[in-house]
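Human
Can I borrow your eye for a moment on a structure tokenisation matter? Give me a protein, with the fold worked out from its sequence. Write it directly below this note and I will take it from there.

Assistant
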Amino acid sequence: MEPRAGVSKQDIREQIWGYMESQNLADFPRPVHHRIPNFKSKKTLLVPTPRLRTGLFNKITPPPGATKDILRKCATSQGVRNYSVPIGLDSRVLVDLVVVGSVAVSEKGWRIGKGEGYADLEYAMMVSMGAVSKETPVVTIVHDCQVVDIPEELVEEHDITVDYILTPTRVIAT
């Protein structure tokens, strides 16, 4: 499932989305086209404020005694709305680890998102507010089929790269 020479980022996105749909690898929401694909994994994820609507960070605070269903909901956009408090850009917050979604990623750490630039913008905002540094690890969690060769000419100066790729079967240091 390797991309061919002369492909575009959108070609790679379409290839990954099509493969994940055809192999029934994706979890809700479906279809995965134009999304960062979800799939079942035994990893815990924390998410930024959806689409930067109310700021960069939200502190999710589940209610006391939250059920497993409520905890799952906390990681959704509805959960962020219902169970979180916004953290302002002027806050003195230090991020220990950045987890970024990807449609495709190479073993060199080059990633392709869904094409809207939010991950790159969020990372730039974290750098500008001093929340992350060059030493802060950047991780992506993807299905094995999403690890592909990405031509170097597709990588742009503003594109965030990842230090580690976690799949259901591997941990790849880039």
